[in-house]
Amino acid sequence: MRIGLIGPIGSGKSTLSKLLSEHYQVPMVAEPVEKNEFLPLFYEDMKTFALLSQNAFYSSLFLLMWNSKDLKSCIFDSTLFSNLVFTELLRLDGTMSAYEVALTYAIADEHLKRLPDVDIHLVLRQSEEQLFKNVKKRGREMEKGQIEYLKFHYKNYFDVLDRIFKNYQVPEEKILYVDLGNIFDEKEFNRVVKVIETRYNKLYNK
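User: That's the sequence. What structure does it adopt?
Assistant: Structure tokens below.
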């Protein structure tokens, strides 16, 4: 079972990925967000560093996924589709130019065609209020004072993601939307696991 998690900033991708990895006793592939040297620069000057930071993320995540491509079971706390959402959002808010977006897509396409797809794209949803609480709780210094950026991100995230899935012809049955509660609650975690396994068995254990 290869599961790729997707969701807006603060939706719990890394937390749920870690819990799923422990539950299934399979490797977790974690995008090194906080170690990416471009991210603080991006938050300081989005216009200047949008293209550079986006492609830094694509490159590092591609290498992680490439090195994991032969694993039968794995949990990815981000995917290239997840990163493409950020590119589209930065285009929509005027941060990235049409040329920069086209260049980013060209690079992403080269990455995508070299990687196997995941078995399930697990898309996490939470209320905007809860997302802001999550971001505040984790306390990343670079995310402080980014309220307007985050509001735009949350407002447009799922419409953009749906368009990307359609553009890349991702089968609808492989996309699993989950409204996430308190994932540290055993009952809630077991519910999520059941939802995942039900979909997986329907797709692959016929």
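Residues 46-66 form the longest helix (21 residues).
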